[in-house]
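input
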Amino acid sequence: MIKLKTFMAFLCLIFSTSAYATNYDQQLSKFEHQFSITDTEISSTTNEEKSQITCLALNIYFEARGTIVQQQTGVAWVVKNRARSDRYQSHNMCDVVFERYYGAPQFTWTSGQIRIGRVEAGSWHQAQQIAKGVYYGTIPDPTHGARSFHELSAGTGGARGIRIGTHVFYNIAAK
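output
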């Protein structure tokens, strides 16, 4: 087992030129005592690819674990679609995952408020596989370019979108 802070500190070193790298450290220090994570199974050609896929897998795991595969895939594609969009200031997966908008995290698990003892191995493995497929483009986008999502119980003030499982995916861009 590897402590998540140690693992994510490695990611921060890779992205030391990123404007958000210090935010990663601040967020990860909050996570250190909350859960442990098994070694990553992600193998890729570069350390940067591995880091990007891992950030994507973490987001899938914490935002959609236990949901249907297409729903988890949708969550991953929202991150990738934001990274590709000129309407967002973040242009890589890790920056998108840890981005803040007026001080608020874009993904709830990065707030440091989660209470999880250990990462469940089967769900983590599945999140990694989906992340690889989305990153490399071998899994198609079921959201048709969505850059936002919410759970059905959360409400959106009238946003319309594509329902996949218990999530709704839609395009409301950052201002």
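quick obs: Residues 47-64 form the longest helix (18 residues).
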